Amino acid sequence: MSVDVFFIIAASVIFLLAIATPLANPFFVWNRRKSIASTIPSSQLSPPPVSIIIIPNRNAQALRKHLPVILQQEYEGDMQVIIVTEKGDVETEDALAAFGTDSRIYVTYIPESSRYISRKKLAITIGVKAAKYEWVVLLDAESCPESSHWLSTLSRNFTPDKNLVLGYCHTPEATPFQQFYKLRLVRQLMRQATPWRALGGNLAFRKSLFLDRHGYRHNLQFVGGEYDFLVSLFAAKESTAIETSSNGYVKEDASTKRRWRNSQLQYLSIRSELKNTTLPRMRFNTEYALMFLTDIAMLAGLLTPFLPLSSIKWIIFGVSLLSIFVNTFLRIRFAKKTAEDFNEDLSMFMIPFYERAIPPHNLLRLYQYTRSDKIDYSTHKV
Q: Is residue 233 a contact partner of residue 168, using CB atoms and an 8 Å limit?
């Protein structure tokens, strides 16, 4: 084979990689689990009674702000709101007093004697046991529904064949990189046949299944992961729904860099305990390996004018330049479309940089986790 033929083949491979690798990106793959309401008329859906669990965690300000929005939901079914708090939390008790004797609110307390277990997981367990109804919605105290139809939107997925429903958490005050990072994770979860972690504190599940499978019995020793462990416990290919309608979104309060960092480190501490993580990790590593391989190949093609290949060097240079343009355009287009679908605002010019920053970011978090004191992620303090 002559040198010219070899480099022409190489240029063809570069162009094919430039087109193929964005198609392997999770932003290109559409949701496998669109809400069942897209195929069932709403008039045929009878809203089931629902119990909503909120854990204030000594954040009375968030409770004052968000509880009225929950109580004002336009929901035709019965609704119970369970507040699980600590005895002696005066600010939370004062916040609840403002709602008078609303019969929909039920307040229960975490035992003062509970030690060496995750208090938030214990609070959720107490809330589930106190729930009057089969379907339980778990809402983070620092999240607020964006629509008065939030509950009715989630509940349209509460069908006999479903055990778990995941809702999206909108983070308008997060940094652009954090938003991009989360969007990519969301699309990974939507592509996966069986999700391995939660989208945030906006999910629903069956009380009976939680009790039958003993809830958090095997992971109360971990400080975090209360939502991810529920997904690991309930998720199955045919019985899990992801609600994608904007009416089903909740908005998270401003997330600080420290809080985001801690949540990622806590995820690393529990990752080995979660089910169905092997395939998404393999996909992630393969996708990024191909992306960086393509980047190297395209950049190498731009160097051919400096090689003694007078007859074809400009052809290879032109193909490599075209490949960079096509590859970048496709990646921006797919990511931007996803951001628009989820009402997130991303700069199209920064998307290529955000995408390539994720592996170094993950390596930094892994390094920070390996250097940290593992007792920080355990409730078994010495």
A: no
What pLDDT is recorded for position 1?
Answer: 55
At 169, the amino acid letter reads C
Give SS3 for 169: strand
Contact status, residue 350 vs residue 176, Cβ threshold 8 Å: yes
β-pairing, 143-145 vs 105-110, is unpaired
CB burial of 111-123 (b: ≥16 within 10 Å; e: otherwise) equals eeeeeebbbbbbb
As a whole number of angstroms, the distance between CA 256 and CA 260 comes to: 6
According to DSSP, the β-strands at 135-139 and 79-86 are unpaired
């069932």: which residue's tokens?
40
- Tokens 């999770």 sit at which residue? 26
Q: Which of 155, 319, 338 is closest to 247 using CA atoms?
A: 155
User: Beta strand pairing status for 169-170 and 79-86?
Assistant: unpaired
Q: How far apart are CA 118 and CA 220, in angstroms?
A: 5
Give 165's strand partners: 204, 241
pLDDT at 44 over 60: no
> Can you tell me whether residue 275 is helix, strand or coil?
coil
Q: Which amino acid is at 289?
A: A
Task: Give the pTM.
Answer: 0.88
- Interatomic CA distance for residues 299 and 218, integer angstroms: 50
Tally of residues, the chain: 382
Residues 6+ apart with CB under 8 A from 68: none
Q: What is the mean pLDDT of the chain?
A: 87
